[in-house]
Design goal:
The complex is a heterodimer of chains A (333) and B (311). Chain A is of the alpha/beta class. Chain A is 39% helix and 17% strand. Chain A folds into two domains: 186 residues, 3-Layer(aba) Sandwich (D-Maltodextrin-Binding Protein, domain 2), CATH 3.40.190; 133 residues, Periplasmic binding protein-like II (D-Maltodextrin-Binding Protein, domain 2). Chain A is elongated and about 60 Å long. The N and C termini of chain A lie far apart (65 Å). Chain B is mainly α and 311 residues long. Chain B contains eleven helices and one strand. Classes of the chains: A alpha/beta (333), B mainly alpha (311). β2 of chain A pairs antiparallel with β1 of chain B.
Chain lengths: 333, 311
């Protein structure tokens, strides 16, 4: 029978658990941030722990790019995953907390505009057409395909897109509409890209956008829509090759990790970053992203050694920037 | 009014019986709908996840390869968090319930406390997460640990435990209490030898219902910072830490980072590779199994304890 003495003893145990706890967390590398970068970092973390026979522990969280930077600039994590460059406000937060960082591009993500495989009239689209379709002024007005382009049929438009908190949404609107976070609101928005995959795969008149990995895993259910590169005038479909040679623009973007300079003094973090850059090419391909040129990864390792502190973006996102560009620039805190 | 003929009475009874049957049918249909939904849900998860339900699924950490991925860190995390939750919520909740029922004076302060406890049960769980982020994670410095998560969920289920303790105590006949007092027992002795043992089956039910709610909670746990990828377990007490000559303390595990089942499931369902959906279904089935077995234990304990009560 349950006696009160048992209650008292559980209370005592709880008390000890509350106040007697001592922290012994040696050698944990803490990473948090973007869900877009997560698959890459997770793959690296998994292989790194195996390579080190679990002597070093790595944790990876998904708080989103913004949430990740909040923790990073509060000095809680060693590395922050980011699908966009650090913003002016986040730079100020980090500065206030005395957190110095090294910015490292790790891969390209190609935002992919997808349509239903049964859709026969859409062969390609221009940035202007996408703008007409997605800009805030289109809300409630552009509801038929022929309103965007007279050559397209008189059929209803079904829109699927990223939720307003995601970096994908920010980049897509900036690249297509011309202003970050400026989009019509009457579309099916979801932070869960699988919802968008299902939506587009079930409706012949649907169009949507998300990261390339979700398209690459679902090519049987989706068709990628080639987007006309404004510089060359040629329609280019998203693929590893087209991203690597730079022709898939403006929807391909670099994604980053930010490494805390202080953490790089710890041997396990330095090793982790070196491991990351050495295996990035293989692992990035495996999780269906597009790897950077080799020189970029070597550059990252060099920057870690020479402590190239700060960002090269000055707090603003840029459309159509190449990694070669990024690596050459001067970094600022 | 004229007296009814036998015929009329028969019609009246038949009408009443018909209504009875109709109500019974509606009741059974309602029950069947509920059962059918849960049956379909469980069998759907089982069928989709069956391929992955093997021993390795329980002993492997999560991986980027769906077929090698397991739920080791998730189920261990869930069990440990639930353990901390129970340790914190049961003594606090039961003591608060006993105090309110047996000791507290009936006045406006007690009334206010009572109303607030009832209201607390309806507060959205994310609010508890935000509260804990401020108090446990930062102010107390527990960090993103099993301890923070356990205490958060303890707060969440505290109202349920308090309310069910009070209900259970109220169900004890007044004569038991009076009889105990009449033979000279103090109030505490009455509580100890009569009230608590007799209320225990009811209290236990409340605790299990609370824990069953807590086990599926995701929002507050994410708020306080549970992780998505973690391929190591909290330190076993007195095990080697890797540092020469230092072994883990008895309670080191409570400060360890962790993940839990619902987060693992959520992560798997939102991945690009559809193969992970099989893992998610399998993990969902395991989580259902955990909840069901908790309920089974509660029913068993309640049955055993009831047998010992002789009024």
């Amino acid at each position: 029978m349950f006696k009160y003495s048992k209650l008292v003893s559980t209370m005592a145990v709880a008390g000890v658990a509350l106040f007697g706890a001592q922290v012994a967390q040696a050698q944990i590398i803490k990473i948090d941030g973007s869900s877009t970068v997560y698959p890459i970092t997770e793959a690296v973390a998994e292989d790194f722990q195996k390579a080190k026979k679990n002597a070093v522990k790595v944790t990876v969280g998904i708080s989103g790019t913004g949430g990740g930077f909040k923790k990073f600039c509060r000095d809680e994590t060693d590395i922050s995953d980011a699908s966009r460059p650090i913003t002016t406000k986040e730079m100020a937060d980090c500065k206030a907390a005395g957190v110095e960082y090294i910015e490292m591009p790790v891969a390209y993500d190609a935002l992919t505009v997808v349509i239903n495989p049964k859709n026969v009239f859409l062969k390609q689209a221009t940035v202007e057409e996408m703008k007409t379709l997605w800009e805030p002024a289109a809300q409630g007005k552009i509801t038929k395909w022929n309103q965007v382009n007279p050559a397209w049929p008189d059929a209803p438009v079904k829109l699927f897109g990223a939720g307003a908190d995601s970096g994908t949404f920010e980049y897509f609107t900036e690249a297509m509409v011309g202003k970050a976070k400026s989009s019509r609101g009457d579309y099916t928005a979801s932070e869960d890209d699988n919802v968008l995959v299902q939506g587009v795969s079930r409706d012949v008149n649907a169009i949507g956008y998300f990261g390339y990995a979700y398209y690459a895993e679902n090519t049987a259910r989706l068709k990628a829509l080639p987007i006309v590169n404004p510089k060359t005038g040629k329609a280019v479909e998203p693929s590893a090759a087209n991203v690597e040679n730079g022709s898939y623009a403006p929807l391909s973007r670099p994604i980053f990790i930010y490494v805390k300079a202080k953490s790089l003094e710890k041997p396990e973090v330095r090793e982790f970053v070196e491991f990351y850059m050495k295996n990035a090419d293989k692992l990035v391909r495996e999780v269906k992203y597009v790897p950077l040129p080799k020189a970029a990864y070597e550059g990252n390792v060099k920057h870690a050694k020479s402590k190239k502190i700060g960002t090269v973006f000055g707090g603003h996102n840029e459309i159509g920037v190449t990694v070669e560009d990024i690596l050459k620039r001067e970094a600022k805190m | 009014m004229q007296p009814m003929t036998t015929e009329q009475i028969r019609v009246l009874i038949a009408r009443g019986k018909l209504k009875d049957t109709i109500f019974q049918a509606i009741g059974i249909i309602c029950l069947a709908v509920g059962l059918l939904v849960i049956f379909l849900l469980v069998s759907d998860m089982l069928m989709r996840g069956l391929d992955r339900l093997n021993l390795a699924f329980f002993t492997e950490f999560a991986s980027r390869r769906a077929s090698q991925s397991g739920i080791l860190s998730a189920w261990v995390g869930t069990v440990l968090v639930m353990f901390v939750t129970a340790l914190a919520a049961v003594p606090l909740g039961v003591a608060a319930g006993i105090y309110l029922e047996e000791y507290a004076k009936r006045n406006w302060i007690t009334d206010i406390i009572e109303i607030n406890i009832t209201n607390l049960a309806a507060v959205p769980s994310i609010v508890y997460g935000l509260l804990s982020l401020g108090i446990f994670v930062y102010a107390f410095g527990f960090g993103q640990s099993i301890l923070s998560a356990g205490l958060t969920l303890a707060l969440l289920i505290l109202p349920i435990v308090i309310v069910s303790t009070r209900e259970a105590i109220r169900a004890i006949p007044a004569m038991i209490r009076e009889g105990s007092m009449a033979v000279g027992a103090t109030r505490w002795q009455t509580c100890r030898y009569h009230i608590i043992p007799y209320a225990m089956p009811g209290i236990l039910t409340g605790v299990i219902i609370g824990l069953a709610r807590a086990i599926g909670e995701t929002a507050p746990i994410i708020t306080i910072g549970a992780l998505t990828f973690i391929a190591f377990l909290p330190p076993v007490p007195f095990s080697a830490t890797g540092v020469e000559g230092v072994s883990a303390g008895l309670f080191d595990w409570v400060m360890s980072p962790f993940t839990v089942m619902p987060i693992q499931i959520f992560n798997w369902t939102s991945r690009p590779d559809p193969a992970f959906e099989v893992n998610a279904a399998a993990a969902g089935f395991v989580l259902m199994g955990m909840v069901l077995s908790m309920n089974a234990i509660a029913i068993y304990l309640r049955y055993r304890m009831r047998k010992n009560i002789k009024w």
